[in-house]
Amino acid sequence: MKMPNYEFTDEESRAVAVALLGNTKEAIPEGFKVFPEPPSTYAPQGEFGKLAEDLACFGCHTMFGRGRLVATDLTLEASQAQRGWIKNYFKIPYSLRPILTERMPNLFLDDGEIEVIVDYMEKVLIADSVEKQIKIDQTKITKGRILFYEKYGCQGCHQINSKGGYVGPVLDKVGLRLKSGWIIHWLRNPQALNPEAIEPNNNLANDEVEALTSFLMSLK
Question: From CA 174, how far away is CA 179, in angstroms rounded?
Fold first, then answer.
């Protein structure tokens, strides 16, 4: 055939098909019309805004809908990660997922620049709903370990001590990285915090949520 092979992706093929099928005099029913959301106008100000532009953070990260989602969405990052971990991560970046080829570059930021970034995150990149903390004890930790390894098989997707799956992030020392309030809300409904999350919603009971959170927070 004379028709060239354009090597369309599935998404591009569907787009062309929709355009061709829409080439009709019939009106498109209102229920089938989809209007894209307007582009985000989020533009951080001050010292953080200048650093974000100079370092091209939006080239890999999204914040409030702006940017490219090559790496993490930072919109709620300060409700997820502990301040000390964020500061150390900027000094020595590393990957939390063994299968990813992308790596956060070492930006060689000085202490003052890191403080500016973390201060801004803790004021803006947060979700007030995830601030609840829990009391951790050995009984909850023991129960959480059983739930993790036996009932829910979390090691199928997550690694601890180099044992486990590769789908989710490594959980070594997760108790030094995440806030317990974030883990609680994530376990209750991952998709409420990230609609694209592949973490299953296991409809955990409250005592199971607290036990798993206690076990994870004990990994230090």
Answer: 9
